[in-house]
Structure formats: structure tokens, C-alpha cells
Specification:
This protein is mainly alpha-helical. It has a domain of about 60 residues. About 75% of the residues lie in helices and about 0% in strands. Helix 1 crosses helix 2, helix 2 runs antiparallel to helix 3 and helix 3 crosses helix 4. The termini are far apart.
Length: about 120
């Protein structure tokens, strides 16, 4: 039984990732048994919920509140499709924001905004 959970190199990945391989095999073993699947989903749900609640408590405080919330959603997304869809949506929105921010902060855009601000002050 313990040898089934030991990490083995896979042919899909060129580099060994023993921790990831271990958790993938353990997760597939847990999903193969109905009782362990239920226990596993419950534990992941509780851990993810605790991380999200702690993150929400940290939001008004200085620190990584929203980051902790997103990590909690990612934990929940490993087992729950709705949380996974929310995680994908958040990633997509952050990517759009980042592209907008980068386009807005090019040297040409900054000089255009500076020129517009000077023109406004002069008028």
C-alpha cells in the first residue's frame, strides 16, 4: 500500500516533480474509494473555507488579505468546479487588468498624459 503512494517519474513530465506526483497519485487513490473521496472533499472544503475566511478578515488590515482569499479559492478549486470557474474568471480579469495597466504605463502614454496635464494647467 505504501509503495503505491511513493512518487515515480512520469513520462509526461521531463523533470521529476516528486511532491506533485505524490499528491496526484494520492488524490487519484482517494477518488477511487467512495468513503475517502467524501472525507478528502470535506477536508479540502474546510481548509479552503478557513483560508478564505482568514483572508477576508485580513482584507481591512495591512498585509496580503486578497492574496490569501485567492489562495483559498484556488484550494477550493482543486475539488469544486464552481470554485475552479471562479478562479479562472479571476485570473482572466487580472490578466486583462494587467495588460491595460501595461499599455497605460508605456513611456508614450506617460508623456501624452504629462502633456495633457501641462496643457490643462496653462489654460
Amino acid at each position: 500500500m505504501a509503495t503505491d503512494l511513493m512518487p515515480r517519474p512520469t513520462e509526461k513530465t521531463p523533470h521529476r516533480q516528486p511532491v506533485r506526483d505524490f499528491f496526484r497519485r494520492w488524490r487519484s487513490w482517494a477518488h477511487a474509494h467512495p468513503v475517502t473521496r467524501w472525507v478528502y472533499k470535506t477536508i479540502i472544503g474546510l481548509i479552503g473555507l478557513v483560508v478564505v475566511v482568514v483572508g477576508l478578515i485580513l482584507v481591512p488590515l495591512p498585509g496580503p488579505g486578497w492574496l490569501v482569499v485567492f489562495i483559498g479559492i484556488a484550494i477550493l478549486g482543486t475539488e469544486f468546479p464552481a470554485a475552479h470557474r471562479l478562479n479562472v474568471f479571476i485570473k482572466r480579469q487580472l490578466q486583462r487588468f494587467w495588460l491595460w495597466w501595461r499599455a497605460r504605463n508605456t513611456p508614450e502614454a506617460r508623456s501624452t498624459r504629462a502633456a495633457a496635464a501641462r496643457a490643462k494647467r496653462e489654460s
